[in-house]
Amino acid sequence: MAMLLRRVWETMSSRTCSTGDSSARPSCTTESSSLGAFDQIPWDVLIQIVKLIGPKEAAKLCVVSKSWRALVSDNRLWIFFLQHQQEPWDSIFFGETTLGSGYPYQTLATGLSFMHIYGQRAQVPGSVIIDGGSGYCKFGWSKYDCPSGRTATFLEFGNIESPMYSRLRHFFATIYSRMQVKPSTQPIVVSIPICHYDDTENAKASRRQLKDCFQQVLFDLNVPAVCAINQATLALYAAKRTSGIVVNIGFQVTSVVPILHGKVMRKVGVEVMGLGALKLTGYLRLLMQQNNINFGSLYTVRTLKEKLCYVAADYKAELSKDTQASLEIAGEGWFTLSKERFQTGEILFQPRMADV
Question: How many structural domains are present in the chain?
Answer without folding.
Answer: 4
